[in-house]
Specification:
Layout lengths: L1 E6 L3 H4 L7 E6 L2 H7 L5 E3 L5 H10 L5 E3 L10 H7 L2 E3 L6 H17 L1 H9 L17 E5 L3 H12 L3 E5 L22 E4 L13 H6 L5 E4 L8 H9 L5 E4 L19 E3 L11 H17 L15
Length: 312
C-alpha cells in the first residue's frame, strides 16, 4: 500500500475514484497534517496559511511526490525539496482561464472608467458622459510571461484587436527576448506581467522600467507582488508618471489597510482574487491528481512538473 496524506477539502471529489492500492489519510487542520506528514509517500498539503504549509512539507521527509493546487510555490522550502529529489506537481494552468478573463476585465474596467460608473450608480447619479473613453482595439500590449496564463491572455486580447508583443527566453517572430523588452517599454499602452516569482524576476519592474513606460500606459500585474518594486510603483502612480496599475497581487498580502495603494485613484487592487473567480478549480485539480495517480503507479512521470531549482 502507498500512503497518501491529503486535504479533506478535496475528499468529496477524490474518494469515490481512488484506487484500492492507496492508503489515504485525510487532514482537516495544520496539526493533523503535521502528525500525518512523516508517513506520507504522496502529499497534498495545501492550506491558505503558506507558512504552515511549508512547515508540513518540511516534516514530510518521506514524500516522493508532492502535489499542490498552487502554481507559485516560492513559499515552500525548495532547496530542501530539491535535495530530497521530491517530484513536485503544481497547479500551472488550473486557473489560467479565469485569470486570463480577469486580465481582460481589468483592462476593460480601466479603459471605460467603469469603477466611476459603479460609484455613480451607488450615488443614484445619472452620468451624462462616459468616465472612460479608451478602446482596447488598436492599443498595444507588452506581455511578459508566456506560460499557460500568458498564452490565454494573448489569445483573448487579440480577439479585442490588441496588438500583443510577448517576451520569451528564445524569441520567435514578433516576440522580444529577455534583453530586448526594456528598450521597447515606451511603445506600449499596456504592460502585462504573467511570469513566476523567482530570484531572477524579483523587482523586474522598478523605477527605471516605470520611468521608461509610455506616459498614460497601464501596468497589469497578475504574477506576484514581488515582481514589482512596490515603493517605486507607488511613487510613479502618485506623480502620475504612468496612467495606472491594475494589481491582482501585492506585497504583502493581505495589503495593510493603511497602505497608500488603497488611496490612489489610478490603482486598482483586486486582492489576488483572479484565480478564485471560478467554480471549477477543485474539479480540475482533482481530475489532474487522479490522472497523475495512474501515471505514478505505472512509474511514468507526473505532470506538470515544478522545478524547485528554477522556481516554476
Amino acid at each position: 500500500m502507498t500512503t497518501a496524506v491529503l486535504s479533506a477539502l478535496i475528499r468529496p471529489l477524490l474518494e469515490p475514484q481512488l484506487p484500492d492500492w492507496l492508503d489515504v489519510r485525510w487532514f482537516a487542520s495544520k496539526d493533523e497534517a503535521l502528525a500525518l506528514a512523516p508517513d506520507a509517500e504522496i502529499g497534498w498539503f495545501d492550506l491558505h496559511d503558506h507558512a504552515a504549509m511549508a512547515e508540513i512539507v518540511t516534516a514530510a521527509a518521506n514524500v516522493k511526490w508532492l502535489n499542490s493546487i498552487y502554481a507559485g510555490l516560492d513559499f515552500l522550502p525548495l532547496d530542501l525539496l530539491a535535495r530530497r529529489g521530491t517530484a513536485i506537481t503544481n497547479g500551472a494552468g488550473i486557473n489560467a482561464i479565469t485569470i486570463a478573463e480577469y486580465v481582460v476585465m481589468l483592462m476593460l474596467v480601466e479603459a471605460k472608467g467603469y469603477r466611476d460608473v459603479v460609484r455613480a450608480q451607488e450615488r443614484r447619479e445619472w452620468l451624462l458622459d462616459s468616465p472612460g473613453k479608451k478602446e482596447l482595439a488598436g492599443s498595444s500590449a507588452l506581455l511578459i510571461g508566456m506560460g499557460a496564463i500568458g498564452r490565454l491572455v494573448k489569445a483573448r486580447l487579440e480577439a479585442f484587436e490588441v496588438a500583443v508583443t510577448p517576451t520569451r527566453r528564445t524569441p520567435g517572430a514578433g516576440e522580444l527576448g529577455p534583453d530586448e523588452w526594456r528598450a521597447r517599454l515606451g511603445e506600449f499602452d499596456w504592460v502585462i506581467l504573467a511570469l513566476p516569482a523567482t530570484a531572477e524576476t524579483e523587482h523586474l519592474i522598478g523605477a527605471d522600467e516605470l520611468a521608461a513606460m509610455k506616459p498614460g500606459a497601464v501596468l497589469v500585474n497578475i504574477a506576484r507582488g514581488s515582481v514589482v518594486d512596490q515603493a517605486a510603483l507607488v511613487a510613479a502612480l502618485g506623480a502620475k508618471r504612468i496612467g495606472g496599475a491594475l494589481l491582482d497581487v501585492t506585497t504583502p498580502e493581505p495589503l495593510p489597510a493603511d497602505h497608500p495603494l488603497w488611496a490612489l485613484d489610478n490603482a486598482q487592487v483586486t486582492m489576488h482574487l483572479s484565480g478564485r473567480a471560478q467554480d471549477k478549480m477543485f474539479v480540475r485539480s482533482a481530475e489532474r491528481f487522479l490522472a497523475n495517480l495512474a501515471r505514478y503507479r505505472a512509474g511514468e512521470p507526473v505532470a506538470p512538473r515544478f522545478d524547485p531549482a528554477l522556481g516554476y
